Structure formats: structure tokens, C-alpha cells
Amino acid sequence: xxxxxxxxxxxxxxxxxxxxxxxxxxxxxxxxxxxxxxxxxxxxxxxxxxxxxxxxxxxxxxxxxxxxxxxxxxxxxxxxxxxxxxxxxxxxxxxxxxxxxxxxxxxxxxxxxxxxxxxxxxxxxxxxxxxxxxxxxxxxxxxxxxxxxxxxxxxxxxxxxxxxxxxxxxxxxxxxxxxxxxxxxxxxxxxxxxxxxxxxxxxxxxxxxxxxxxxxxxxxxxxxxxxxxxxxxxxxxxxxxxxxxxxxxxxxxxxxxxxxxxxxxxxxxxxxxxxxxxxxxxxxxxxxxxxxxxxxxxxxxxxxxxxxxxxxxxxxxxxxxxxxxxxxxxxxxxxxxxxxxxxxxxxxxxxxxxxxxxxxxxxxxxxxxxxxxxxxxxxxxxxxxxx
Amino acid sequence: xxxxxxxxxxxxxxxxxxxxxxxxxxxxxxxxxxxxxxxxxxxxxxxxxxxxxxxxxxxxxxxxxxxxxxxxxxxxxxxxxxxxxxxxxxxxxxxxxxxxxxxxxxxxxxxxxxxxxxxxxxxxxxxxxxxxxxxxxxxxxxxxxxxxxxxxxxxxxxxxxxxxxxxxxxxxxxxxxxxxxxxxxxxxxxxxxxxxxxxxxxxxxxxxxxxxxxxxxxxxxxxxxxxxxxxxxxxxxxxxxxxxxxxxxxxxxxxxxxxxxxxxxxxxxxxxxxxxxxxxxxxxxxxxxxxxxxxxxxxxxxxxxxxxxxxxxxxxxxxxxxxxxxxxxxxxxxxxxxxxxxxxxxxxxxxxxxxxxxxxxxxxxxxxxxxxxxxxxxxxxxxxxxx
Lengths: 387, 387
Known about the structure:
The structure is a homodimer. By secondary structure, the first copy, chain A, is of the alpha+beta class. Chain A contains 10 helices and 19 strands. The first copy, chain A, has 2 domains: 2-26 and 40-180 and 287-379, Phosphatase 2c, domain 1, CATH 3.60.40; 185-261, no CATH class. Helices cover 29% and strands 23% of the residues of chain A. Residues 26-30 and 32-37 of chain A have low confidence and may be disordered.
């Protein structure tokens, strides 16, 4: 993990650690022998996470210190279930109803669904803790969160924000996350504004138009979309449509309430639209989308890697370019024991560009991004020996 | 299209017609010559639709008579845009801002997005009309809606409910719709109940459990999911959790508020949960998901067909079985000019089974469904000559 050192206060944060999961004691009524067995039973997970802060590094710092603890806690709450072939209806394993195992099977509830649920709940709890902590200490800001967990032969990638994780395998690239931005979540955001118009306090319009409307557009029919539309229609422009749009701009310029470039993440509990009383938090979601990769279904090769990076990398390099660089770099440096971290550095350097006077320029003389850049490169081979 | 004639009052309805789209006049300030040109300019669409009614056939009957009219109207509102290479910012084609074409291009707005928007708006308008009509005449009930539109070399399939459309091509099956049921839309339904708990009036719980909870479960931790979870977790059971779940049951037995088996469709404006004041309509969506098939990208063969059917067919036969029957039937009856409607009859007969005493039985001696069954088989070859 390397930071490009472009900003004075680096807002990217990263964590990498083992997570030891202990089966919790189940209460006093259990017989003692079983209790002892339980308290010595461990599962080990491996965890990597990136946090891209905004409005200061505080939220990213708290999240980088706390999210893995929340995940550990939530996994321990379901530890009894994830060591079984099929999660039991009752966490205690007791059967109140004879056909409970059948109900669980009918719903297709698998061990990995418990891990996904634990990750979803952990993000939510971490967000609450950040809110309390920041309020108590008078800090502000928020961050995206991208977390990878290797557990029991599966890789779980949980994402809330615009960082990205991909697997670069010998012959394919497997995307392990998708980005949550005001553009990708337009319908969710517009729907919320439709359900609770007061959230916009008369200052914004929930409709999407291809550009900001002007006085001359009033009385004309222009292209628009509402919350329920994937397609486009024409709307007769009224004066209220001249307000600033809830979601505005395109690509990297897209903003929620003219304020934020992401629609999911942690923190931002105090964030208000500048010069207004409009809160941004009700529109933000802290819930990650979790993708699973099952190693048992794939033949993992020596140079196969997981690459996680904040948007600073992906703004400059696409998946294919990153995969190409990874494959050729790892093939050329087969014997270097540090080749994975060297590859991470190499990716950061490429996206950072070179300083020419006051500007950072890319090799192809495009202007480089001024964003922080962080990259993890995680080897996937020999997992159980090397991890 | 054939109905299995199992129910006394057939609740399935079907429509098939041409839709002539006329470019609307744009107001008095246009010069006369141009106006005349416009009023003679036509586009022709071809339309097939299935409606599966519940609580009586009324909503299905109104929808089958009215939805194509709404679609025609909405398409005419955008007729100026769908005959251009790229829809203009203003429906009049006038340019208030010089870079308007660039804004439209940046948003990737294409002609097909205008058709999708028109279909989405048409479903919504049709739903409003059904609501007014049924209130005025004291009728009740609702229906699913599956509509296919062939226009300008593309097939649009709009679906709200649990009917299904597939393309059976020579070598592949292309699903053209997905089903909207209380199970597939669980998270949307639970989220609404979370945002507006009053909608449940204290009678239902929004949480999902693998089975209905009992008094013995109180104080225990059992498997559950909330609106934000794709995974599962354990929840300490409180007394309130013993209430009937918002979404309950599995597969064909899944019900929304113990009442409805679908979560999207038209009508049901008056529907209340039996013996309560709880309205079902706030949970229902009338917005279709639209899928597009572009014929220019495929080499369509002589026996390639679109198959649309209500759930009565798909409960008994899967996509593969239907495709297999279609391919072998059409290959065996190459010269029969009625082979497509004969195939529809054949599919209905297979799903209907045979009457043995009081029971309808399938060939493999499973019990057949008692649901209405309707099927369209639409040939895709020689579209422009034969349509």
C-alpha cells in the first residue's frame, strides 16, 4: 500500500490484519465440557481494507482502526453457524420446531450468507460508532470503505463507495466490486427525495436533466428523468425546475446535492450543504455490496492477485491496463520476494505521473489526477501456507 | 393465445395490435408546409401484451383495452425524438444552449431510451386510469402486465409482475423479463416498511425469518434478514417479532402482507389486507422493467420465436423445456402456416394436463396447476414483410 503523497493531509487510509474469530460462550446452562471446547475453537480470517476520506482524514482514520473490530465481533456472533454445514435456525443449535433444518434449507441459507450478513451489519455498526466518536470530538468528514476478507476458502469483498477491487487471474479479470456514486445510485436518491420532499428544503429539484436549466427553458419541453425511469422523457419546464439538481454533473464531476462525489460510505453525520440546513446523511448509505469468490471453484495460478485501490488509481488506469501491468510485472520479477509490494508501488507511480514544474503529468502527457492513490496487491496462490 | 379454460371467470387477458405513431403538431408558430409534412409522418409499432388478473378480471380487462393506447400516446409525445439519430434536448428541436447536443451525447441518451421512458410512463398512466375507472364503477382487483413492442428494428419487453417472455433462437434462449414477486422484491418492500412503519399498522413485522415464529422462540436468537441485508444474521426474538411477516412463504406460496403473490402490476387501488385497514397499494409498483433486443445485432433464423406466457405456463415448464418443445414442434411442422399458433396451443395443453376425475394431471403424473394459462408465440423472421 502506497500513498502518492500529493495532498498535504493524506485522506486515504489502509488496514491489513488477521482476524481471529472465537466462538462465543452460549450462557450458563450449557454443560461445562462443551463450554471449554468452544472457547478454544478459533477461525482465522485475513483482512485488507482501504478508506478514502473526504472533508478531512478523521472518518478514514477511525474506520481503519475500527471496522475490522466490528467485523470480528459480528463474525463471532455467528461463529456457531459458520462452522456448520448449514446455519441452524437458532444460534444455540436447539430445535424449537422439528422441521427447522428444512425451513433453513428451503430458503437456501448457506454459511456464506452469514458472513455477508456479518459484513453488512459490521459496516452499519462502524458507521454508528464513527458518528458518536466524531460528534464527541467535534470532528467532521466521511470516507469510502472497501474491505476484503479471506475466510474458509472464500474471498468476500465488501464495498461502500468508489474504490474498486479486481482479481487479475491468468486468463481473466474478475471485478469484485462496483462503484456507488450519485450517478450509479440516481434512482435510489431521487426516490428518497420523492418520498421525503422536505429533505430538499425547496432548494433542489429531484429531476435529472442533461444540463442545468436556464430561464429560457421555462415553458419548453426538455429531456428529463424521474426516480422511476431508466429511460428518458420530455418534461414541460416550470420555474421550480431551475433549482439546482439533486444529482448533477457527469462522470467524476457528478455530485450529490452539489456536495459529495460518492453516495455510500461511512461518516458525514454532520455534513450539510454549504449555506443551508440541508443534511446530506439521509441520502447516504453505509451498507456495502458484498461479492464472493470461491477458491474451490478456480485453479489459482502463481501470479494471480487481488488488486484493491482507491479511485485515484482507477481514474487514470482501467481494469485492462492494470491487469496488463500486473501480469507483465509479475512475470518479469518471478524471483523477487517483494514483487507484490513492488507492483503496488509501480501502479501508484504510473497513476501519479511526474512533476513537471507545478503540474503532475502522465507518461502520455495527459494531466495526472491530484487525488490520493492507494493500492493493495494481494497474492492468491499458496493461501493456506503463506497467509 | 389460448386460455386453458380452467377457471370459470378467466382472469388472463391478452391484446395484440399495431400501434400507429403520428408525429404531433408542434404549435401554431411552425410554418405551414412543415406542419403538413409532420401530420402525414407515421411510425408503426407491433404490440403484444398479457395481463394476469387477480381479485376478478376487471383490471386485466381495462388494461388489455387501454395500455396500448397509453403507449401510443407516450410514443407520440416523443415521436420527434425517436426519428432523429440522437434525441434533441428540446422536443421542438430548438437550441436554447449551443452545446445542447453535446450534453445529450455526454449522457449517452439514445433513441431507445426515449422508448423505454415512454413505456415506463405509459404503465404509470394506465395504472392511474385503472384506479379512476374502477373507483367510478365500484370494481376491484389488479393484474400483472407483460407487454412487447416491436419498433424500428428493436424489440422492447416491459414487465410488471410474474409473467415471462423469452426469445427461443436457434442456439440460445434469451430471457427478456424477470419476475417481480414478494420474494424478488423483498428488500424494496422491507425498506418501505422501515421508512413508513405506519403502513403496517402494528399488525405485521418487516423482518424476514425462515419460518413463522412461535411463543417458544421469544428470548432466543434466530435467523433473520432486514431490508439492508442480502446475507442473514441472528436476531434476539421479541414479542413483536411474532407478528405476521410483511413477506411470508416461499416460492409460489410467497405473499406480500399475506395477500398478494406479486409485487408489481396495475390496479389494486382499493385492496386492503382482510379484516384490517392496511392498504396493499403503497407496496405495489406499477413501473415495468424494460429489456431491449436489437435485431440488427443478431442473425434471426426462420424458426426463432418470442414466447410470452403467464405464470400458469412457467409454473409447470422451465425455459429449457419450452425452448425444446418450440424447436422440435416448429422443425416438424415447417410447412404449416398456422404452426406458431399451434405451438401456443400445444404449450398450453402440456401445462394444463389432462382431467382425471376431479383432478388435472400432467403427463408425468404430477398434479397440474389450476391457474389460467395464456401463451403468445411470435415469429421473429421476415419481420418487415410479414408483421
